[in-house]
Amino acid sequence: MGVGGWAWEVRGGTGIRPLRVQGLWALPIDAAPIRDAAVLIGADGRIAAIGPAQSVPTPPDAETLDYGAGILLPGLVNTHTHLELTGFQQTASEQDFRRWILSIRRLKQARRAEEFLEAARRGLLECWAGGVTTIADTGDSGAVIQALDELEGSGVAYHEVFGPHPDQLEETFSDVRRRIAELSRHAGHRVQLGVSPHAPYTVSGPLYSRVAEWAHREGLPLAVHIAESRAEREFVSQGTGPFAEAWAARGIPLGQRDGGTEGQRDRTGMTPVGLLDYHGVLGPDTLCIHAIELDDSDIALLAERGAAVAHCPVSNAAHAHGTAPLAALRAAGVRVGIGTDSVASVGQLDLFREARAAQAIAKLSDEQTLALATLEGARALAREQEIGSLSRGKWGDLIAVEPAGGAARTAPIRAVLQAAPQDVRLTVLGGRMVHRRAPA
């Protein structure tokens, strides 16, 4: 299988052979780096052994791979993608956020269902080529969860919900329940279905409440774009700005931001995060995407409710939205992972680049930065018991990276952080080789 000139190998089905991979270093994430290391993944797709190469057995039926100068580490976790938008790179240069949204809407309206599915498949393969083995995706076409199911991927697909007008409430909620029921056939094994009431400027207060209450009752994880821009905060707290003007032009009553009517309640000082909490959206199963425009009370509220954050520094900069308070979120104990957002925002899905950007923002150590892209991302998705580190019993999600330069010999974590997607030589997902890059 090939995309963009890259070589791919996908091994599907049951009864895979054990796989033993050797490299110059292994970075378990939850333990110290191991030099001249090997990882053994059993036929059940889980890690059976990791350690110095001489201590890791080679079963007689195992497939063996030796990446002599390579660095072995867990598959990366991308906590925010829109893979159905694959192919929309032409919009990445648009900085005006409202014009960008309108451009995306026009492009989506022109794309057919089969094209969304092809885009999702291609996007998933490109994630694997870039070292990402688990994704958290949002979209409304249903294509990504179908692609995850077909290609035996790993991740959560949040079905997006839109409905700013109060008159849409019953119709929209009925449609959401119908679509979730339809898409649920693709969930299972390592694929999870969730729901995503999109953002305060596209979802009414009553719809937030209805979807959140239903999702919590049904055990569906939630994701929401929140506190992404100053315009959003102005809209929520003051009822003014470009989003308020757009609502007024469509005849949508501004009181539906919080479920009341104008004059019923003083909204002075209400923040987007406060709005979510008022409607019962925040909780341990809630992923807050972007979370840039936060004050101290917002951060404390996120920590108190146990919500997680998907931090997308390159996308945030591309749309000129500012810098999220990553250090403060981490200090408060908020679970944070990093995400790329879509190619429509950033051009290329490169989690190594996102990690470097996050490191610069929060002045993180190399170890902390690599954990953001692996184990901390897994924690943000409540999957740290299954993925995010090279630990016995966890899924055999592993990548082999061969960065350019000589840092790999003495500073493997630094070398990985300096890598790019094209430096990923091998991607293994649950013991299956889903990407192998042919030698240059």
Q: How are the secondary structure elements laid out?
A:
Blueprint: E1 2-3, E2 6-7, E3 19-26, E4 34-41, E5 47-52, E6 63-74, E7 76-81, H1 97-110, H2 113-129, E8 132-139, H3 143-150, E9 155-161, H4 169-183, E10 191-197, H5 205-218, E11 222-226, H6 230-238, H7 242-249, H8 272-278, E12 286-290, H9 296-305, E13 308-311, H10 313-318, H11 326-331, E14 335-338, H12 343-346, H13 351-362, H14 366-372, H15 375-380, E15 398-401, H16 407-410, H17 412-417, E16 424-429, E17 432-436
Parallel strand pairs: 3-6, 7-8, 8-9, 9-10, 11-12, 12-13, 13-14
Antiparallel strand pairs: 1-2, 3-4, 4-5, 6-15, 15-16, 16-17
Structure, described:
The chain has 440 residues and is of the alpha/beta class. The protein has helices at 97-110, 113-129, 143-150, 169-183, 205-218, 230-238, 242-249, 272-278, 296-305, 313-318, 326-331, 343-346, 351-362, 366-372, 375-380, 407-410, 412-417, and strands at residues 2-3, 6-7, 19-26, 34-41, 47-52, 63-74, 76-81, 132-139, 155-161, 191-197, 222-226, 286-290, 308-311, 335-338, 398-401, 424-429, 432-436. The strands form four sheets. A seven-stranded mixed β-sheet has the order 5-4-3-6-15-16-17, covered by helices on one side. Strand 1 and strand 2 (6-7) form a beta hairpin.
